[in-house]
Specification:
Blueprint (H helix, E strand, L loop, with lengths): L2 E7 L10 H13 L4 E6 L6 H4 L7 E6 L6 H11 L1 E2 L15 E6 L4 E6 L8 H13 L8 E7 L6 H17 L4 E6 L17 E6 L6 H11 L13 E3 L2 E5 L9 H11 L7 H9 L6
Parallel strand pairs: 1-2, 1-3, 3-6, 7-8, 7-9, 9-11
Antiparallel strand pairs: 4-5, 5-6, 10-11
Helix pairs in contact: 1-7, 1-8, 4-5, 7-8
Length: 290
């Protein structure tokens, strides 16, 4: 049976860079030849969630949300727009970070759709965060002597957003790779504004758990941390703040290894990925020590 992958993301009418990671990761998976078809769909751009399944010929479709956390979009908007029959969030049987997949029918196209949990809560995202630290420092062995801050938006509207940040922070802490690992937020305590207050290390890598670079990652966080007074003037990497070297990595979702997480989500849902999954990881670059 032919199988297709559909990567669904938010997109933006205002930020042309918002959809770039989605297209980049889709190209990586497409080049590996795992799926008969690979499609992208967006809430704020074309092609839309509502139309994408009509562009797919395969009978079996794996839908992977390129979102950080379980919440309004993954639990309500996407299933509604895809017209997934019988969807209910209880099908995921999740505590906020453990969504796997649910197999349903799409009512108007007569296809089996395996609707996956978001990439941001998959265990493999911990590897991507570590890879982001490697990329920004240029050191495949980065860890000893370094602190690592995993940064989220933080909001009272979606408690699962913070859960995803804490989940990966704890997983990376258990790796015993970095001297210190902390979860920080833009809109709740502990705040990224005070990043140097939460670390004793002289060097701290800051990785925002965002899918794409945009207003928050390119403007708010750099200014809030004090690595620049005006984002339009840019910032140094590393930049010194209160005697601490801050290695600011930008959005984790732009890391090439994200393509591997997308494939792992589909594999967990039953996709026949064979040895092609390894080709995706090789193409994106392996996490040192894996």
């Amino acid at each position: 049976m032919s199988q297709a992958l559909v990567i669904v993301a938010h997109g933006s009418h205002l930020n042309p860079d918002s959809s770039a990671p989605t297209f980049d990761h889709a190209d990586t998976v497409r080049a590996a030849g795992i799926f008969d078809e690979v499609r992208e769909a967006f809430w704020k751009e074309e092609p839309s969630f509502r139309e994408v399944l009509r562009t797919v010929e395969a009978e079996e479709v794996f839908v992977v949300p390129l979102f950080v956390s379980e919440g309004y979009f993954t639990e309500e908007v996407i299933p509604r727009e895809l017209r997934l029959e019988g969807w209910d969030v209880s099908r995921w049987d999740s505590d906020g970070t453990s969504a796997s997949h649910a197999s349903l029918r799409a009512s108007d196209v007569d296809k089996t759709v395996h609707y996956c949990g978001p990439v941001g809560t998959h265990d493999a995202m911990s590897d991507v965060i570590v890879r982001r630290a490697q990329s920004v420092t240029g050191d495949p062995d980065v860890g000893p002597g370094f602190g690592l801050a995993v940064v989220g938006h933080g909001t009272e509207r979606n408690e699962n957003s913070a859960k995803a940040i804490h989940y990966h922070t704890e997983r990376i802490r258990e790796m015993d790779r970095f001297d210190e690992v902390a979860a920080l937020f833009m809109d709740e305590e502990p705040e990224v504004d005070d990043v140097t207050d939460y670390f004793e290390s002289d060097d701290v890598v800051v990785v925002p758990l965002f899918v794409a670079d945009g207003f928050h990652t390119q403007e708010d966080i750099p200014e809030d941390m004090g690595i620049t007074d005006d984002f339009r003037e840019g910032y140094d990497v590393p930049a010194e703040v209160d005697g601490t070297r801050i290695w600011y990595a930008g959005a984790v979702g732009t890391e090439a290894l994200m393509a591997d997480v997308i494939v792992e989500r589909a594999r967990d849902a039953g996709a026949d990925v064979g040895g092609s999954a390894e080709r995706v990881r090789e193409r994106a670059g392996d996490v040192a020590g894996d």
